[in-house]
Amino acid sequence: MANRQPIWDISQVEKAQASKNFTTASTINQKPPTSSSKLHNLRNGQINVQTYYDIYIFEERLKQNLLQIKKVQRNYRIITLIWSLFLGYFLYCFVTYKHSTIIYNSENGEIVRYKRNKIYTVCLLITSSIGLYYLLTGKIQRKLNGPSRFTQQCNKTLKPFNLQFHGDHKYRLSFYRRIPRRFVEGYILFVTELKKRSKLKKEMQNKKEKESN
């Protein structure tokens, strides 16, 4: 199982060597391959620019999906915190008879009993019912554990293709050692150049907008 460990981490490969290999091995003028040939290229480490582009787009989609799931997780954490505060406050009022009506003995002025405020009692029941519903249905657990479940499902699906998705702050794919090093180096150069061109394009657009204004 040692050969299944992802050792071709993108950050660990030298860009200079990648440039050399990519220049000699890439085939820019090839026709777009079919989906079956793309899979074959990935499994066998064959260089193909269209394959690089497909992997990059796939990586970006995984990243955006995971970020969306983390956004939902963050919202549910906030909702859970607010719910806990309300539940704690209403429970405190119920136990300590806070905001309750005190009934005195008309003869000696002693306290006979406390009459709880119905509004706080109803709020406690509603808050408890909402929390119980989400706990029993498991919805809150699914939302809070969404990112880890998404990453696990992705890696389970990607394993036959010798890929692994990092669900931490890296948000990127890494390759298993079965993928040849030159394929990984070529992919790194492709992504680097693609990002440079995208950045340059944005800078030119911003410059044109400033000039027009």
UniProtKB/TrEMBL annotation:
<dbReference type="InterPro" id="IPR019168">
    <property type="entry name" value="NEP1-R1"/>
</dbReference>
<feature type="transmembrane region" description="Helical">
    <location>
        <begin position="117"/>
        <end position="136"/>
    </location>
</feature>
<dbReference type="GO" id="GO:0071595">
    <property type="term" value="C:Nem1-Spo7 phosphatase complex"/>
</dbReference>
<comment type="similarity">
    <text>Belongs to the CNEP1R1 family.</text>
</comment>
<protein>
    <recommendedName>
        <fullName>Transmembrane protein 188</fullName>
    </recommendedName>
</protein>
<dbReference type="GO" id="GO:0006629">
    <property type="term" value="P:lipid metabolic process"/>
</dbReference>
<keyword id="KW-0812">Transmembrane</keyword>
<dbReference type="GO" id="GO:0031965">
    <property type="term" value="C:nuclear membrane"/>
</dbReference>
<dbReference type="InterPro" id="IPR005605">
    <property type="entry name" value="Spo7"/>
</dbReference>
<feature type="transmembrane region" description="Helical">
    <location>
        <begin position="78"/>
        <end position="97"/>
    </location>
</feature>
<dbReference type="GO" id="GO:0019888">
    <property type="term" value="F:protein phosphatase regulator activity"/>
</dbReference>
<keyword id="KW-0539">Nucleus</keyword>
<keyword id="KW-0443">Lipid metabolism</keyword>
<keyword id="KW-0472">Membrane</keyword>
<keyword id="KW-1133">Transmembrane helix</keyword>
<dbReference type="Pfam" id="PF03907">
    <property type="entry name" value="Spo7"/>
</dbReference>
<dbReference type="GO" id="GO:0005737">
    <property type="term" value="C:cytoplasm"/>
</dbReference>
<keyword id="KW-0963">Cytoplasm</keyword>
